[in-house]
């Protein structure tokens, strides 16, 4: 089987990083087309040996991209097309049908209750989504929460498959030596209690809540923000207003896996943390929280379907926080009192069962089942073929 993955962009982001990790574990030949922005993840995919094509789409209404994409699909001889993110799903499904591909699968990564990929949902977006969804064989939801939203939109139940995001559990396993090296490299005080936040620096992630909470806590609490995005300057100004500028570290976007070429990477940074906090109130999965659990961290979250969809016993150490800065400040202080604090001396932080539940090999196996069903199912009637 030969598959083509189509994604809106390949800058640093959860869906983009998830695609790169997934392709390392799918047992079939895959190429990738990015409609726009061949950024950091495109470079990583190329380094992994994946062929990446930039379609050069100029905007949401660049209809000239459609026949170009259809020709690319047809000439590539693909058995299956898998689309990711809204724009790629709309254009990719149509292009795949025009190219005569028999199996089209889409993953819905970012459908929130009121937002889609950080933008407010509109009736027009929903209508276009549903019209293009009918052209596919299956729509993959990354959590039961997202599956429920798809059903409420009117996506037929037989076309919805739940395949959760996955992580490389071994990669995030706590390493005390890595912790010591990373904290030293970051210049963290030996006795600092490090609160971690992971994700795109956007308004929806609400990292300003953690900055405000930091101002309510003793001076040995520090905040480590891992990610980049349009709200970075806003967050820096918030730290100045709260008087905690010297206690907030911005690392920028860091690679998912240690490869020896970066001084810092995400697993090293999670080893350096003492607790992970996720104040976002609208998540479709909650990948950062699962990564924190895999690193053996206590996790405080406002919304995390990945945790909430499991029996509580599987995610020991994860606690929901309702409220804003005051609530997170209290929860952080309570977590520190409950778990103790010896930042330079921990030797082991075992991961709860939830981390293993979301192992990327399990995710890849589930997705292969979806692919097999899509390829073996009768094809929908063709729209026509782009020569």
How does this model look, in words?
It contains 16 helices and 15 strands. The chain is an alpha/beta fold. The mean pLDDT is 91. Strands 3-2-1-4-5-8-9 form a seven-stranded parallel beta sheet, sandwiched between helices. A six-stranded parallel beta sheet has the order 12-11-10-13-14-15, with helices on both faces. 40% of the residues lie in helices and 17% in strands.
How far is it from the N-terminal to the C-terminal residue, by CA? 22 Å
The secondary structure category is: alpha/beta
Beta content comes to 15-25%
Widest beta sheet: strand line-up: 3-2-1-4-5-8-9
Calculate the mean pLDDT score and round it.
91
The helix content, as a percent range, equals 25-40%
Q: Taking Cα atoms only, what radius of gyration do you get, to the nearest Å?
A: 21 Å
Report on the biggest sheet.
7 strands, parallel
**Global geometry:** elongated
Relevant terms:
single chain, 387 residues, alpha/beta, 7-stranded parallel sheet, 6-stranded parallel sheet, 17% strand, elongated
Brief summary of the model shown:
With 387 residues, this protein is an alpha/beta fold.
């Amino acid at each position: 089987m030969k598959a083509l993955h189509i994604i809106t962009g390949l800058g640093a982001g959860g869906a983009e990083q998830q695609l790169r990790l997934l392709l390392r574990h799918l047992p079939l030949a895959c190429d990738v087309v990015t409609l726009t922005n061949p950024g950091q993840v495109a470079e990583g995919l190329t380094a992994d040996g994946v062929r990446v094509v930039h379609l050069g789409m100029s905007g949401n209404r660049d209809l000239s991209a459609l026949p170009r994409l259809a020709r690319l699909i047809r000439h590539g001889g693909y058995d299956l097309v898998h689309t990711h993110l809204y724009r790629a799903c709309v254009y990719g499904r149509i292009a795949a049908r025009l190219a005569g591909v028999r199996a089209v699968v889409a993953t819905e990564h970012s459908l929130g209750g009121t937002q889609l990929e950080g933008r407010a949902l509109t009736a027009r977006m929903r209508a276009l989504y549903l019209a293009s969804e009918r052209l596919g064989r299956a729509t993959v939801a990354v959590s039961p929460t997202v599956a429920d939203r798809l059903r409420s939109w009117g996506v037929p139940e037989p076309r919805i498959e739940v395949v959760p995001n996955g992580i490389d559990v071994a990669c995030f396993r706590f390493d005390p030596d890595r912790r010591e090296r990373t904290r030293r490299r970051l210049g963290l005080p030996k006795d600092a209690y490090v609160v971690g936040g992971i994700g795109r620096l956007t308004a929806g992630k609400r990292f300003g809540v953690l900055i405000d909470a930091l101002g309510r806590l003793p001076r040995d609490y520090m905040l480590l923000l891992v990610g980049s995005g349009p709200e970075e300057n806003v967050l820096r100004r918030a730290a100045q207003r709260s008087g905690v500028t010297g206690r907030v570290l911005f690392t920028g976007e860091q690679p998912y896996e240690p490869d020896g070429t970066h001084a810092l990477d995400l697993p090293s940074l999670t080893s350096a943390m003492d607790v992970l906090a996720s104040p976002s109130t609208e998540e479709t999965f909650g990948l950062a929280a699962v990564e924190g659990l895999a690193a053996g961290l206590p996790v405080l979250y406002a919304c995390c379907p990945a945790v909430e969809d499991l029996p509580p016993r599987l995610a020991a150490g994860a606690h929901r926080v309702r409220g804003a800065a005051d609530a997170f400040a209290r929860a952080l202080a309570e977590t520190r009192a409950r778990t103790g604090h010896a930042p330079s001396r921990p030797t082991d932080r075992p991961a709860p069962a939830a981390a293993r539940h979301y192992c990327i090999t399990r995710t890849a196996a589930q997705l292969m089942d979806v692919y097999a069903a899509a390829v073996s199912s009768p094809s929908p009637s063709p729209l026509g073929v782009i020569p």
